[in-house]
Amino acid sequence: MATNFVDRVVLNVTAGNGGHGVASVHREKFKPLGGPDGGNGGHGGDVVLEVDPQVTTLLEYHKSPHRSAQNGKPGAGDERNGADGDDLVLPVPEGTVVKDRDGTILADLVGFGSRYVAAAGGRGGLGNKALASQRRKAPGFALLGEPGESNDIVLELKTLADVALIGFPSAGKSSLVSVVSAAKPKIADYPFTTLVPNLGVVTAGSQRFTIADVPGLIPGASQGKGLGLEFLRHVERCSVLVHVIDCATLEPGRDPMSDLDTIEHELSEYVADESLGGKPLSERTRIVVLNKADVPDARELAEMVKPDLEARGLEVFIVSAVAHQGLKELTFALAKHVEQARQEVESAVPARVIVRPKAMDDAGFRIVKEGGTHGTLFRIVGDRPTRWVRQTDFSNDEAVGYLADRLNRLGIEEELFKAGAVPGSTVLIGPGDNAVVFDWEPTLQAGAELLGNRGTDLRLEEASRPSRAEKRDEFHNRKDGQRLAREELAAERQAGVWTEHESYRTEE
């Protein structure tokens, strides 16, 4: 049977990539060396989950499970920075729990406007204008934009309600919700009519609370039989549990006491998320409702088992949803328990926020020795080295030299020596299979080093410009040199002096 209610999805979110920086030189008439003017790239957009009261299901993400934010724009010359990518805001229902693939809870979104950044956008790369300094006056490179994060997250919707009605299929839970609130759930005389939780608002005196009709449970629901796990998930946030027992059932082997014991067993077996702050289901306030008392045999059975249930310490109500019997007493009792539960929450000591500042001697990276098929590998793990590598254009020798300088200033070369690395050792920077692999040569210089300091231009170091006379003398000297070369070549031809290049000689 098709339904528009989806309460669990696996969502792939990808943040925007940062825009690349640009290497550019300012060009203006009579100013051939105007200096670097490359702009920075824009930051990539984040993927943000935000609680929206207008959204009640995760159906939209079930249909489209891949979501991506906008990339940042690249920089341009004339110091023009690229635009930042727009954040992608995904509305989710209140009560959505965000988990990773391993089941670890990342966020519990409760309250209008609650937000969680599911994937952070990449930083934009710096242009050569931002990379210029006193020692590096004319950088011939720029940094690349950092790729955005890509994560697979699990969204689970756990209904926010004060009271949950639980019980076997066709016990009359939907009928009870329809008569005590304004909700209009589907009601029929066959099992599993209710496939999704139905929420209703109940008013009892000055108290208002929400009540949820949880679809019917069967034996083995806590181990996943039927749709038990999906249904029990919606009970986790409810402070009061109401057992709705069908006293008029004609199924063999069923009676109010056995039905109660079966559901209680499933509640005790179900493991709720402790990180959400809720009590185990078996420790929450429970009330028993003996339903369908409008049937004479059912009322007689209800009055017979009521003393036994009360002997267990349970509060018992005999009601009829069809005949509207015993509903007033039930709603006021529920309001009393809900008020007590809310007071306990308000008086609870708030969780202490633990702040762990970074240690003063924290280098920002660590070196891990790994064994491989080709010998010992040295992996450098850390946010900064990984980001620097991702932002480096390895086709530019000057950019590679700049990366080497940054890694050296961070102390990586010294730590590699301490870890036992020798020239030629295989070094990886970054986690997983996306790491950059290279053979470590601590004394190797980049090609740009042979021309002087990286990012320098000897023409920019000239303090004065040649005069007109100096330019004229240089011009005449060059012309004189060309004339003498032509005269020497003509004299050799006239004298018959010919030489051939060594490459054209053949062995005799």
UniProtKB/TrEMBL annotation:
Annotated localization: Cytoplasm
GO molecular function, one term: GTPase activity
Location of the OBG-type G domain: 161-339
Domain Obg: 3-160
Bias-annotated ranges (Basic and acidic residues): 459-491, 499-508
Gene Ontology CC annotation, any one: cytoplasm
Chain positions recorded as Mg(2+) binding sites: 174, 194
EC annotation from Swiss-Prot or TrEMBL: 3.6.5.-
Protein name: GTPase Obg
Organism name: Dermacoccus nishinomiyaensis
